[in-house]
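REQUEST
  id: r-88c1
  op: predict_structure
  target: Aromatic amino acid aminotransferase
  payload:
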Amino acid sequence: MVEPLPHVREIPPYVPGKPPVARAGLTTYKLSSNENPYPPLPSVRATAEQAVTAMNRYPDMGCSALYDALATKHGVGTDQLAAGTGSVALIYHLLSAYCGPGDEVVHAWRSFEAYPIAITAAGATGVKVPVTADGRHDLPAMAAATTERTKVVLLCTPNNPTGPALTHAETTAFIAGVPADVLVVVDEAYVEFVRMADPVDGLALLRDHPNVVLLRTFSKAYGLAGLRVGYAVAAPEVATALRAVALPFGVSSVAQAAAVASLAAEDELLARVDALVVERDRLVAGIAAVGWTVPEPQGNFVWFDLPQTDAFAAAAGEAGLAVRPFAGEGVRVSVGEPEATDRLVEVLRGMKRPT
Ligand code: PMP
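RESPONSE
  id: r-88c1
  status: 200
  body:
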């Protein structure tokens, strides 16, 4: 047998959110993958279907229409952009371009479960810094964990799965203390859902610090999770490195077309995000009304920090809700349809609160 490299055996599994189990007479809801519950916009769908007609051709490897639209949106050069098969691909690209055996990557934990997977796959070593009791990044501890071996620091804001987001002030102060030869990745997968005082202004960070890399995705606010398209905004030298290591033709023609059409329909899509934020607020109020507490949610999900994760998931499942348990640590529930919110609150009302 040919063996994979030893570190490949160490790669932790990615546990995808499960679909709901059908229940007779009950509409079920998938709240397990932080997806956008709205169906595709007709304009986006029509553009994607048009792109399907050319499926015998390779996509535009230079993603030119997408880069043009993103450069306009963000006020950056097209040479500052690198697209990939979801923003998770950009995490792989970053780590493969900048890290190898012996290098360390500092990140909060619990955070996005793909981080330790991608770090281990790159042959690097992850340094997990526990989040605070209220689910926030412990930036002083992350600064202390950054050593001469550190190549990359991953910041996740809002943090998946715990929910809170970083402020601009604390992020600026953190980056000021990180050596300029360490990349600071700001994973903004849920940025469109943030409603807080002093939110991170990623582009301002990037203007002041060329070692900052912003990660964005079309999977959440833009509702294109199934098409797999995300991107990085970075200094031109970093974007060049990311494009160099990327899988050739990684972003399909359909994904590129749908992403461009989504940017053209941004107002409509962001109005849906506003509606989801209203739903998030209603969910938070409902959770508080039945005596539970969650860390401040700034994404499209809430986090229940409790050890009885299987019991919670089973109770939600009985009510037709698929949620995402992280065994023994907590349960993440995506914000979705109003009926799903009402059912979740009823589930909580019927459950024993953790003491
Ligand atoms: N970053 C974070 C924090 C996420 O939660 C996710 C998706 N769950 C991603 C990145 C990756 O999203 P995608 O690959 O769909 O763009």
